Amino acid sequence: MDSSVALARLEIARPVTTRGACLPEGEQSAHLNGCVPLSHQVAGHKYGVDKVGILQHPDGTVLKQLQPPPRGPREMQFYSMVYADDCCDRCLIDLREHLPKYYGTWSSPDSPTDLYLKLDDVTRRFKKPCIMDVKIGQKSYDPFASQEKRDQQVKKYPLMEEIGFLLLGMRVYKMGTDSYETYDQHYGRGLVKDTVREGLSKFFYNGDVLRKDAITASILRVQKILEWFQGQSQLSFYASSLLFVYEGISPPDLVSRGPRESHLTPKACEQNNNISQSLSTMISLHKKACYQAKQDNGVWTSAPQPNGNHGLLSVKKEGEELKSHAGQETSGDVEVKMIDFAHVFQSDVHDHGYIYGLKNLLKVLQQILDE
Q: Are 92 and 83 a contacting pair, CB within 8 Å?
């Protein structure tokens, strides 16, 4: 394995936790210490429905309940590795730009053994967030999955291997009715090769206009994630998703011409051209790593960190400066973040399945933009 590959082996015996930080508000459930089920979740395990789920903390973060081993510990170790205080791996520092911020783990005083990942809620700053969850990759099962699990996943969506992505769910704000339309996983799995473009375009149609500004900004952000994947060969991601969020309230410079004839004003078109030109900006390849690692059936372990920190966020100035300035003004109301890391593994080759899915998704987004 190349010496520049950076994979920290992280132990989970002493995770940093925040206990009892939730303060009751109004009529929120007392046994959750002021935390409530996440109201705008569009996919994944839901609290109160599944054995594990996602909560909303009063401080604006979200709490993702740890899944049973090895998935839960593996995801926690992934976040801990990327956000380690003393991480000096350029590849991992660059990756932070594309993830929700991680603040360690949290548990309620009522259930101290139930751990949650404490993460930034990327939808918090939006007034009317439109949200879409898209699973990326040609395989939704990891290399250690049983044959039964593999067959089950392929049966759920046979098209995954061919197109490299799957729409898991979305929530779209409709301007005219001041309401949301929700599409679940069954909608996404019902899409075929000939209808996937139309299916995705519904996410960007607000009942009045096709939000081409949001599509353009989404393309920019997905392109930056693709550039990161093309520059790294140390991690492979399975059953991971992209979370798209844009502001549902249309900017004033959009002109309504119906769902298929929507156009941008000349000013907005000029901004879109600038974004297209900025897509050629490449993120620099990662430098020599400071960690050496091995993998034991997909679960990482490590020697204790010198500073004793095993999870709290401490983003260095260096990492913040990595963000590209290209298109920041026009993409300010759009977020695209990578989520769900219960199946991330050490690798020494490019993640071809994820790259394939990103390229196909970009192709479909561009087709929608060109309509």
A: no
